[in-house]
Amino acid sequence: MFVRVVNVLLLICALSWGAEIRKTRNDVRNFPDGFLFGTATASYQVEGAWDEDGKSENIWDHMTHTQPCIIKDCSNGDVADDSYHQYERDVEMMRELGLDFYRFSLSWSRILPSGFADKVNEAGVAYYNNLINEMLKYNIEPMITLYHWDLPQRLQDLGGWANPHIVDWFSDYARVAYEQFGDRVKYWITINEPREVCYQVAHAKAYHIYDEEFKPVNGGVIGITLSANWYEPETDSESDTTATEERIQFEWGQYAHPIYSVSGDFPPVMKEKIAAKSEEQGYPRSRLPEFTPEEIESMVPWGFYKLLTKIRESYNNPPVFITENGFSTTGGLEDDNRIRYYRGYLSAMLDAMEEGSDVRAYAAWSLMDNFEWMQGYTERFGLYEVDYESPERTRTPRKSAFVYKEILRTRTLDPNYEPDTDVMTIDEGH
């Protein structure tokens, strides 16, 4: 049987927003055969080695060096978790947890220091080859994000994502990544949480390069990560219901609709609202960019998108990969709130799956503490705690790591499971 896979990759931030809260079941539940579990990180947040081995400055390097206290704790990712040097320990943690896959991103400026595909940095490629090969040695599938917010500063100086030429710059970079790693990497994400039209067009071009040139040889799937909140109306009134749907369409429908709907265009309500507002403000035409017929054609893959149940009901139930889902604390190894969070979200995911949603994989954010964008190191998302005072950036498993390991080991969600050890080991076969 030939299945045309829609690789929907999704960050779920909230299950509901409003009056009605769905109760979490308290019984032991099983995950289906073949369901994949993983964790996720991003290059700038964990790699460090910001200027080593030929890597050039990216936009986060530039911002945190020129405006350090724009970050809550005035920190930066210069060293971060030092995964550039500690990748073997990272893979060891993946083995301890029993992961099926690990999602990480490539640093564009580490692979192409000029931002352009004129010269490939072999040292940067070697780092990712070492990481990928170490993972595959232990049957852990790499899932690569091409772009997770760390644009080369040299391209930002040319206008960055506001420059239409970036569509070609990005697709050239994507081709280099496919050529270097595509023989071993079967899961690809073009862009993490797009926010501008150029992102969507760049995704489309990179998608088709892989789909047409590399997939026939290497196999694999490719998609895009979309951030999604779920909202509930405050009341059952028509105005609240309409407002809720409009909020959904403006927040994430504007990115999902062009890619996963039949029309290949922005949501109708968004087009109508922006056209009316543009006319009111005196513009001769809508300020919402229009896709060309060629761009619309290139951004329609083989399925539809929606947030779990809404995916199933509105967009023909494509396979869904949940690529980030996590809970932050301020630190410490006893993270019961994180455990409750994961159990609640996994239970809700199983509810949707039992009703028919085709969810294939789940990645916890994050494998370990990391540099959290505007919060620096004041927020901790990791299953493993990182000691940032230690030269080795020592990683220590939290209680949640033991709970997540048990879920993966048994392929069950047991709300009453309590770890009986604080010593993490690698199970046979990992």
From TrEMBL:
GO biological process: carbohydrate metabolic process
UniProt family annotation: Belongs to the glycosyl hydrolase 1 family.
Identification of the protein by name: beta-glucosidase
Entries under Pfam families matching the protein: Glyco_hydro_1
PROSITE patterns given in the database record: GLYCOSYL_HYDROL_F1_1 (PS00572), GLYCOSYL_HYDROL_F1_2 (PS00653)
List of catalytic residues: E324
Family annotation (InterPro entries): GH, GH_1_N_CS, Glyco_hydro_1, Glyco_hydro_1_AS
Signal peptide span: 1-18
Keywords from the named record: Glycosidase, Hydrolase, Signal
EC number: 3.2.1.21
Top-level taxon of the source organism: Eukaryota
Lineage, broadest ranks: Eukaryota, Metazoa, Ecdysozoa, Arthropoda, Hexapoda
One function term, GO molecular function aspect: beta-glucosidase activity
Coiled-coil regions listed: none
